[in-house]
Write a structure and sequence with these properties.
about 90 residues; mainly alpha; 7 helices; elongated
């Protein structure tokens, strides 16, 4: 399928940015804080996301028999943590 050329109206309403336009640009949150959430200076220093755990875990791949896995899952939510605790105690 052939690409259609841009119409003159589209070019006038959305011109290509010049270096001068880029230099004058400001973040949207400066103009629309209710939409983009203006953050205070203190909030900007605070790291985002979940805090790092002192005891970080390591992801592994472990193959278990279906009946063993079914028994652990049958113990309800948190079965992975209980399994980890049993393994930790057995070492």
């Amino acid at each position: 399928m052939k690409k259609q050329p841009k119409s003159n109206k589209a070019i006038r309403e959305n011109p290509e940015w010049t270096m001068e336009m880029i230099a004058k640009a400001r973040p949207a949150k400066a103009f629309l804080p209710k939409i983009f959430g203006a953050r205070t200076a203190a909030a900007m220093l605070k790291p985002r996301g979940r805090p790092k755990s002192p005891e970080s875990k390591v992801a592994i791949s472990l193959r278990l028999s279906p009946d063993t896995l079914a028994r652990w899952k049958a113990t309800g939510p948190g079965w992975q943590t209980r399994m980890a605790n049993v393994l930790r105690e057995s070492v």
